[in-house]
Write a structure and sequence with these properties.
By secondary structure, the chain is of the alpha/beta class. It folds into two domains: 81 residues, SRP54, nucleotide-binding domain (Four Helix Bundle (Hemerythrin (Met), subunit A)), CATH 1.20.120; 190 residues, Rossmann fold, CATH 3.40.50. It is 47% helix and 12% strand. A six-stranded parallel β-sheet has the order 3-2-4-1-5-6, with helices on both faces. A two-stranded antiparallel sheet has the order 7-8. The longest helix is centred in the N-terminal third of the chain and has 17 residues.
Length: 310
């Protein structure tokens, strides 16, 4: 009789996804300047960024001296502790406050980051937590986005509020909030047009959506979730800066960590902006949108003794 495949833990999946990005610390060699310089180069190549890399290496070198670290295993553990400490302040899961009904999540981000797919995965996660969900197809700029959201809605048996292509996104959001309120939905997730952070007119549209929501509920949106492609490297920092200036981002959801993403951009974002990282996308399956865990991520990024995750 065939046995079901064992369920892989989140840490195990994350290590597998970040395998190509894991920092290599060769076992057996001395902890000397050459090894530390190589590690510094790897951090830079992993999109950690110059300022953050400098801070990490300064702390690591201090600990090497004071704690008398002489082997790779101790160095790996120490580096993991440093990275985890940098990430811990932003490791804050999204909490749905049911005192706000509907609890409005405004999902924003540029084209191609996996925003609409992430919305579908979030809807499934919330439904599994016995929360009623409604989706708003606010991306009226791209017809396929509405259809994609409706496909997710049909798959999950979640209502989707949409209008004809080219409709005013703010009007769609207004109708969706009214529908969610009247039906007693716990969560309303609003999709928005995938916009370049350099396009001022589209940013203005996003601000309009926020104003409309605020008129309906002064506390809405309760979460402004920026979905990022972790593979875009330092460009992701520019996206965070621009979106945060426009709509006050309250949470991040980096995706595509199963591809060519190096992962270090999360560390750079944590130190520079301090915005909570709510979720990370580590695969195509709905369950591959995971709550961010600082310790697990640092462990996966540092890797195993051979530098290749098992």
């Amino acid at each position: 009789m065939n046995q079901p495949a064992p369920k892989i833990s989140f840490v195990g999946k994350l290590r597998a996804r970040l395998q190509r990005a894991a920092l290599r610390i060769a076992p057996g060699g001395p902890v000397d300047d050459s090894l530390l310089e190589d590690l510094e180069t790897q951090l830079l190549q992993s999109d950690v960024g110059m300022d953050t890399t400098r801070a990490v290496m300064e702390e690591l070198r201090t600990r090497v001296r004071t704690a008398r670290i002489h082997n790779a295993a101790e160095l790996r553990t120490t580096l993991q502790e440093i990275l985890s400490a940098l990430l811990e302040p932003v490791s804050r899961p999204l909490v749905i406050d049911t005192n706000h009904q509907p609890f409005v999540i405004l999902a924003v981000g540029v084209n191609g980051v996996g925003k609409t797919t992430s919305i579908g995965k979030l809807a499934q996660r919330f439904k599994s937590a016995n929360l009623s969900v409604m989706l708003a197809a606010g991306d009226t700029f791209r017809a396929a986005a509405v259809e994609q959201l409706q496909t997710w809605g049909a798959r999950l048996n979640v209502p989707v509020i949409a209008q004809a292509g080219g409709a005013d996104p703010a009007a769609v959001v207004h109708d969706a909030w009214q529908a969610a309120k009247s039906r007693g939905c716990h969560v309303l997730i609003v999709d928005t047009a995938g916009r370049l952070h350099t396009q001022g007119n589209l940013m203005d549209e996003l601000k309009k959506i926020r104003r409309v929501l605020a008129r309906l509920d002064p506390s809405a949106p309760h979460e402004c979730l920026l979905v990022l492609d972790a593979g875009t490297g330092q460009n992701a920092l520019r996206q965070i800066q621009q979106f945060h200036a426009a709509v006050s981002v309250t949470g991040l959801a980096p995706t595509k960590l199963d591809g060519t993403a190096k992962g270090g951009i999360l560390i750079a974002a944590a130190q520079r902006f301090g915005i909570p990282i709510r979720y990370i996308g580590i695969g195509e399956q709905p369950e591959d949108l995971e709550i961010f865990d600082a310790g697990a991520f640092a462990s996966a990024l540092v890797g195993t003794a051979e530098g290749v995750s098992s």
